[in-house]
Every structure is written in C-alpha cells, then in structure tokens.
Amino acid sequence: MKVHSLMFRTVIFFCLTVFITQICLAQSDQKQYHKVADLIRTKYNDGQAQDIYAMTAEVFKKKMTVDQFVQGMSKFKAKSGEWHSLTYQLSNDKDVDYLCEFANGNQIFSIKMDSDGRISRLNFAAVQVVIKNKDYQVRSNNPLKDSTDMLVEKLVRPYIQKGNTSGLLVALIEGGRVRRYSYGSISKTQEVLPDPANTFFEIGSVTKTFTSLLLAKQVIVGKMKLEDPINKYLPDSIPALTIGDTPLTLKHLANHTSGLPRLPANIFNEKVNPKDPYKHYLSDSLYHFMKTYQVKETPGTKFSYSNLGAGLLGMILEHTSGKSFNHLIVEEIAHPLGMFDTKIELTKMDENKFAQGHNERGQATAPWDLASLKGSGAIRSTLNDMVIFIQAQLGQENPLSKAIELTHKKTFSSIEQDMGLGWRINKNETSSYLHHSGGTGGFRSFVGFDKHRQIGVVILSNAAEEVTEIGEYMLNR
Q: What is the rounded CA–CA span in Å between residue 299 and residue 241?
C-alpha cells in the first residue's frame, strides 16, 4: 500500500508540474500576444502598415505582397478610422481574438504567431450590429387608395421601418402621370417629411449617367469621338495606355470596360478622413497613379465597374472645356432641362434644405466631397429634378435629345452586363430597361426607365441602406 501511495503521489506531482508549466507558458504566450497586438494598434494609428508587414512570417508574405498589404490596411483605416482599444476575447489552436473599438465601429482582430514570434495570420472581421426596427409607424403621405399606392406601401414600409433608415422619396412615372410618395423624415431629429421639390439628396453614382451625357454632347457636336484614346486628353507625362493596337478610349471610361480598378491604388496612401474619404484625392494624385498604371487586359473586352474611370472622364471633360465639373453639370445639362436644383456646390440656402445622411448603423454622416473623382458621384439633387431627368430619358422633347439617345445605345454586351454610355441595360420578360444606382456615406439612390412601356422610377433615401431592389421590382411590375 505504501508503494502504491508513493507512486500515486509521484504521478499527481508530475501532472501538476506539467499543468502549471503549461499555464505559465500559456500566460507567457498571452502576454506576448497582447504586446504584439498593442504594437500593431500603435503602428496602425501612426500609418506604419509597412512596419506591421515586416513583423509577418514568410508564410504570410507568400500570400500577400507588401504593396497589397499596405493598400488593404490603408483602405481599411479609411473606412474604420482610429483604433481606440482592444480587449482580449479568447484563444484557440487557430488564433487569438481581440474585440477592438474603432472610430467607426467594432471589429474582431484575430492574430496567430509562429514559434519564432512572427505573425502568420492577421485578420479583421466587423462585429455585426443588430439594429432593431422602429417600434412606431413611420409617417408617410401615401394615400393608400389604389393598387399602385398599395404596391409602394408594400415595398417601402419594411425599408422605412428599419432602425437605420430615416427618410425616402419615390416617384413613379407612367406616361404623362407622375406619382410622388414621401416617407419618414429629413433627419432623425426632425420629424419632417422629405419634400420632393425642396429636399436635396446626394445621388452618388447616378452622377455617372450625367458624366456620360456630357461626353455624348461633345460627340454630337463633333468635339470628341467615343473612340478617341484617352491619352489625347491627358498630360504627355502619362505613357500610352494600350495593349497591342487597342488603346483605352473615352467609350471605355463611360461603359466600364476600361479595365481600370474600381479605385486607384494610391487613394488611401495619405491621411484619410473616414467621414469624407475622397476629399484629399486631388488631380495631382490621380495623374500620379495614371503615370505608373499599366493596362493589364484589352480595353473593351470585359465589364468591370470603375469609379476611377468615371472620375477620370469627368476630369477630362473639365480640362478640355476649361470649366469646373459643377459648371458643366449646371450649364450643359441641368438648366437646359429645367433642373434648377441639381448641382454639386450648394448655396447656404440649399444647405438648409439638405437632408441629413445616415450610415449603415443609422448614425448621422457628413456630406462627401469627391475631389478629382466628381464625375463618379458628386451630384446633389431633388426628387422633382430627377423626375425631369427621367422624363427626358423617356423621350420628352428637350435640347439634349440627340445626346440622350446616344447614351442609350448599347456599347457593350456580355453575359454579366449590357451597357450604354453610363447606363446599365437589363432585360425583363417584355422589354429592356435602363437604370443606375448610387450611394455615398449617408445616401442611396435609384433611377430607371423603360422607354418602350413609358415608365420610370426614382428613389432617393438619406440612409446607406440599399434601395436598388425596390426600384427594379417597381420597374418590372
């Protein structure tokens, strides 16, 4: 019995020793992880992404180059803002997780280090925020008298009752008749229905249809050609943007077949204000990117949506005319069509009528300044003005008819997407319709029309909650 007791005590002592050693090692590892995580947070805030990359292991570097890492971190910082704090959550065989507070929301930061203390895995994942629906019936002016009213109510009510939305305007154009519906409020602090005539919204990428219309006007009067190489309108310091005998042309910028990236790689290299992420990106920065850009695929062969392409087209139109993009929009399109509340630069009086934008979480946001990318999404407008714009697309007689017709002509076709100039072209069971959606930090928009059936839809929202599905459903019904 004594021998067995001694052996038992020896085994217990050995197990405890191993267990305590493991705890000490785990605590030691955990301290090292905390130290590295906090160092990454400091370097992130100081804009030293290259230093973070230098801390990674070879297995990490094989998956991502330093340029890709720096660009990715810069883009992430532009959206997430300053990294305020991190709190240990849990660890497992895969990695160690921290709950991190950023200026624009919380993230789960996961990190894994190898036996040499080098980072083999590093990842951020947004913490999903559940936003409760409003617990009251949001106001609207919908009379609910006929099937069209009921359809609008059916589609819009679930949207406007979401906790992150604020206000929404809808216009349905059927032949010569226009129905206008107003829901919600111009801000979460002002229970005032958006006004179709007076409330300004950012229309985001719907701007691209205006930019392409400016190009079409130049083509109609013979000052430009769709097949003109863009190098013809760029500084001589920018190398020829071609593959073989195929140059990158103005048409490619307008129909998203240029092959240019969605955004220029250097856009987040500088200190970025997450609340106004493009304001810093001036023409010098854009031209600097174009000097080093190499065309990777034959232009005109593949649809690839590009804010950069539309922004570059806007800059080309500015520089060839010697006028600001705002002046071109107002004098060449808006005023000739009778749209006197469509512009980029708002007056003090206009600003008092500007709807408050709200982000994905329903928080108030600042207006966006698109700087050198104005052609991709800088216009502000009202519902009534956008109704006029769509009526012009439907064939209502106007000074821009020939240019408008040119923007409707199919310039590219693929399984993924047919394109006019600026306009997406989709087919339904009976005909085809043209449309475009838009979004900024605090707004969403949709415009679309079917010329054959003489119907159109305009939706403007002062929240970053998508409205495209609603708009396309209305067009197809």
A: 9
